[in-house]
Each structure stands twice: as structure tokens, then as C-alpha cells.
Specification:
The chain is mostly helical. It has a domain of about 80 residues. About 60% of the residues lie in helices and about 5% in strands. The protein contains four helices and two strands; from the N terminus they run αββααα. A two-stranded antiparallel sheet has the order 1-2. A hairpin with a 7-residue loop joins β1 and β2. α1 runs antiparallel to α2. The model has no long low-confidence stretch (mean pLDDT about 90).
């Protein structure tokens, strides 16, 4: 069973990472007021020349991809924080066994033990 100290340490790590992700997202997106953990990339305005328009589209496209990636990471963190609050953090959502501390240290948002994750990735 995971110790309270370990869970608290993971909670602090998750909260720091959440804050970092939200700051990064705030740099190029606006938070969607209607949907939790959803952000909308801002379309940059460089000017009206063709090369400026092409730059706007390229930047916006890159920002959309980054937005999706950061939003997924943020959702994973929020799910982990919810599991901590419910008392289910560190328990595999598939088999119900404890997820090892080493796995959680390496990937604090893990919701599956190594064995179940391996089975899932083999079946893809």
C-alpha cells in the first residue's frame, strides 16, 4: 500500500505540473469557459502580406497540435488528482492491483499497472 507521504509527494508534483501546463497554454490560447480543461488556440495576426498570412497559418497549425498535447496532459493530471481525492490513486483501473511506486515516480499519471499496460499496448 502506498504511504500517505508518497501520495502527498505525487500530489505536489502533479499540482506543479498542472500549474506549468496552464501557464504554457495561457501563452497562446484562451480558456474555454464552457468546457472544463479545454483551451482554444488564438489565431496570430502578423499582417496582410501573403508571406505573413502563410506564417499565421503555420503558427496556428503548430499551436493547435501543441494545444491538443498539453490539454491531454492536463486531463491526465486532473484525473490523477481526482483519484488521489477518491483514495484510488495508485490502484490499477483494470485489475485493481497496486501500481508500483517506481512506475508512479516515472509517470505520476499512470492509471494502469505495468502488466495491464503491456497487455493493452500489445492488443493495439
Amino acid at each position: 500500500m502506498l504511504s500517505k507521504e508518497f501520495i502527498e509527494k505525487m500530489k505536489e508534483r502533479l499540482l506543479k505540473e498542472k500549474e506549468s501546463l496552464e501557464k504554457r497554454l495561457a501563452g497562446f490560447t484562451q480558456k474555454n469557459k464552457n468546457v472544463k480543461d479545454d483551451y482554444d488556440a488564438k489565431f496570430p495576426e502578423y499582417g496582410d502580406d501573403d508571406d505573413e498570412n502563410a506564417g499565421e497559418v503555420a503558427t496556428y497549425s503548430d499551436n493547435l497540435s501543441l494545444e491538443r498535447s498539453l490539454e491531454k496532459a492536463l486531463r491526465d493530471i486532473n484525473k490523477s488528482l481526482e483519484r488521489i481525492e477518491r483514495g484510488t490513486y495508485g490502484i490499477c483501473k483494470y485489475c485493481g492491483k497496486e501500481i508500483g511506486e517506481e512506475r508512479l515516480e516515472a509517470r505520476p499519471v499512470s492509471g494502469a499497472c505495468v502488466e495491464c499496460k503491456e497487455k493493452l499496448t500489445k492488443n493495439r
